[in-house]
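Can you please make up a protein's amino acid sequence together with its fold in token form to help me picture the idea?
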Amino acid sequence: MRVEVAYARPDQQYLLSLDLPAGSTISDALAAAGLATHCPELAAGDYAVGIWGQVEKSPQTRQLEAGDRVEIYRPLSVDPMTARQARADKARQQRARQS
């Protein structure tokens, strides 16, 4: 069965197409992709993974289906609530200057 493994760094993106045997798991796909050799930050294994945007809690047991896209997620660099608050504050300051 054919699946894809995707990982995006700020400077480069990886999208690998793999042929795996039926019954393969997310962990099998990650091992077959071998991205840890190109991306040392993945060697530790402390990253979230999912299929088509849905985070998977048990990649060792989750079996893949043909056409699945396994995605490796980087940790957020900024808390979304903090970023939203900063944008709102900036908009408020701009409106105050225009008045």
About this structure: The chain has a mean pLDDT of 89. Helices lie at 26-33, 80-98. Residues 80-98 form the longest helix (19 residues).
